């Protein structure tokens, strides 16, 4: 029983990583109609910026966090015009062009990280951010501060963004611009200011995700983004594109599934089995388990 | 023939063929990444047949094609008309599953890989010429078939599905059958490519067939132009060859340059360099110059 | 006109590809090194290259090889078999000898070209099981896996009579599963019981599930056969779940890399690790190497693999001087064969750490060591000689 509980907790921890990344991915989809396939790489870049500032400032956590969030916002705002330019059909998700554009961005980020930061070696975050001893430790069960924060913030972020996008005026404005900029302009929504705000919001979320990943994982490497990118896309598709609540549920379920397979069957089969399950789901429900929200 | 030229030409041919294998399903809007898994499955199968069962290469190559086609056909029964996202997931799934199976099968080398594939034709030189000949015959055959497809009612139907699947269906296009056709042909091409890829290196390793290959082929299609098969023919040799000529200092930033090139092309020319309009203007120019030549010949005579 | 221009372009391109790399120049020895200078393991490629260039620097300071300076020419394969094969195809035209390729996928793609053209390319970072497929056109840097590792890991196990049940974390990459099997045989021979291994996915991001799976089997000892970064993280997870006997953890040699210390930090203190080099050696040559490395790498100690291609360059020097090779392009094939024959059976080669012999391309008397890690330094525990 202890093993099962430990694995479920491990699975929730892994799942919370997916939830955070899928939420950021879905936000970009909802406010800008972008399939940012390499969003995890952007988050990893923010992790690296956080690490650089921590190194330069003698582990000043507030400055590190501020730097991580700021870098994510800047990267989002810089890439925004590129995505806007390539999207041929506004009001619909142009998976192909935005996905390929994000692949180009991802290639650049990963290569720059392997070339320049820390000579391509993995980076380790200080205990001040990553935490030291576990919060709870009982036999095989171990829960760290970072895991609690990432799961908690993941749930809060999903709820918060859901409320923002579907229950507030600014949120409706963000979605209006994404779906129909001309219509939005006609009803008096300031396009430039609101558009920039929507990108900035998703950038802030990206920065927060970077900090939380630093807390959960304690380290990062240039290839970290690529390792999770396929799963993030898959979770989003299985849940239903743009479905925030669906992303939360499926992300956590995938994490638990992977943990159970690694714990009881085989580590090397975990990806294959996880994707096989997702494949069956998508064949039965092509629009995703919870339906798209676009 | 200089050795570097052989490797350049042979790998370029594989890149062209595999990019076409992605281009075909993309004509109906599907990103069919299962082709990379097909390469691995057919390649390893053929390698096993040749090394362990001493099957002649020709039969092993044929098996590679058939196996690729069979997998493509069976899978297309389920995803022939599925949304793009479902097809993407299928591709990822097959890549993960094929990798896991291969790394756990010691009979085909497992994680070590498969060594020592024999020379076709008895000597290294003969092997190279034969592989090159087969590859470029394959390029010509596949190119011809794709050209005929593009210029047929099936090609027009595919274009309609790409632009508006519902409208295409209402006009009587059978999306499922069309999807099945392009996916099966695409996987058949990939199966053959996988066998030839391994015989270029005379070995197989899991890391020959990774997600990075997907990135390469996608870059070729989107930079070259995804609306016509000629984009691949132009982009594949350039994207593979130009970085080989760069000075070492620049080469070390090759991936950044690739990414930047991809972004620039997408922003400035979203359809890629070669568009149908460009191809038509080249065709017009060529036919115009033929007419002018014929006219001047007539005048002389 | 267009056809002529196209033909000229193709010819120029072919020429560039065919002659793109440096030829053997009369005034210096050029040793191309097929290395992963970009890509996921570029950091490893960097210190491998550093080691080779350090050797070239020292050799040139001492007068060169047979009076001519030597230059190591880095050739990036970017972990890409497509690139690796073309680069090797270029090298075999003119080069006397080469270093690399790195790593295994590129070896698989490129070494058959070296073999076909009768050129030695020293693959100094891969196992015998890979290298021997390409004999005699490479040599193995490592002795037979099963024979050597079995003995080594058994020696580790015998230190701890209380350690009865052992589990391994194994990542499915290249020769590593074979090494894990060798460990298992050695430990079983030493009277230990091997528990079912825990497979580590190559793209694992969190390691809690794997740690729980291992600990659930109630092992007394754990051996790690996965990449350095993963080992560091696994050890952290084990500690978080109450693992206390750090010396009952053994890390294999391929994980003895900076990533282990970067991700593991203080949590890897007390863990034991085996390797083929002893960083605590006190010789002028090794001290000079260490100091030079630290100067170029912010005070860090040289990783264990950094000496491999250093020694490889010295081996090439010895081969050239012993065989009287001239570097004359007209004698290229003969001189390549001479170098290959010499290196396959070199006697008492003076490596930076120790002397060793090669017999038919296989090292016969390299020592191995078991260390304890303390504050990113290694303290000798055992030397295990064949």
Oligomer: heterotrimer
User: How much beta of chain C, percentage-wise?
Assistant: 15-25%
Largest interface: A-C, 48 and 36 residues
Query: Based on CA inertia axes, which overall geometry of chain B fits?
Result: globular
Supply the number of structural domains of chain C: 2
The SS-based structural class of chain C is: alpha/beta
Instruction: Round the mean pLDDT of chain C to the nearest integer and report it.
Output: 90
* Helix-strand pattern of chain C: HEHEHEHEHHEHEEHEHEHEHHHEEEEEE
How is the topology of this model organized?
The complex is a heterotrimer of chains A (294), B (301) and C (386).
Chain A: H1 2-32, H2 39-56, H3 61-86, H4 95-116, E1 123-124, H5 127-130, E2 136-138, E3 141-143, H6 145-167, H7 169-179, H8 181-186, H9 191-217, E4 219-220, H10 224-239, H11 244-264, H12 270-284
Antiparallel strand pairs in A: 1-4, 2-3
Chain B: H1 3-26, H2 34-53, H3 57-79, H4 84-104, H5 124-150, H6 153-163, H7 165-170, H8 175-201, H9 211-224, H10 230-245, H11 248-251, H12 254-268, H13 276-300
Helix pairs in contact in B: 1-5, 1-8, 1-9, 1-10, 2-3, 2-4, 2-8, 3-8, 5-8, 9-10
Chain C: H1 2-18, E1 29-35, H2 42-61, E2 70-76, H3 81-94, E3 97-99, H4 104-116, E4 120-122, H5 128-131, H6 145-158, E5 165-170, H7 176-189, E6 193-194, E7 198-199, H8 208-216, E8 221-225, H9 228-240, E9 249-251, H10 258-264, E10 272-275, H11 284-296, H12 308-323, H13 332-344, E11 349-350, E12 355-356, E13 358-359, E14 362-363, E15 368-374, E16 377-384
Parallel strand pairs in C: 1-2, 3-4, 5-6, 5-7, 5-8, 8-9, 9-10
Antiparallel strand pairs in C: 10-15, 11-12, 13-14, 15-16
Please give a handful of descriptors for the protein shown:
heterotrimer; C: 386 residues; alpha/beta; Rossmann fold; 8-stranded mixed sheet; two-stranded parallel sheet; 16 strands
